[in-house]
Specification:
With about 70 residues, the protein is mainly alpha-helical. About 65% of the residues lie in helices and about 0% in strands. It is elongated, with a radius of gyration of 13 Å. The mean pLDDT is about 95.
Length: about 70
């Protein structure tokens, strides 16, 4: 898969991951919502690390800077 997630998009995804992790660590998340948001955070983390988003590929979207 080719890269389709740009730097700003990656940073925003990482910010959401950090926000979810902090909310969980502070005890604001528990139960089912913690599991669901944990899965969302994991997906965002992986797409950020690999700079590839399968949903973007399906939709033909890319936030990478054009060179």
């Amino acid at each position: 898969m080719s890269k389709n997630v740009g730097m700003i998009d990656r940073l925003l995804r990482l910010a959401v991951v950090v926000a979810i992790a902090v909310a969980y660590a502070l005890g604001h998340l528990s139960g089912t919502i913690a599991i669901v948001l944990g899965a969302v955070a994991l997906a965002l983390l992986l797409t950020s690390l690999f700079s590839t988003c399968p949903a973007y590929s399906l939709l033909g979207v890319s936030t990478c800077a054009r060179r």
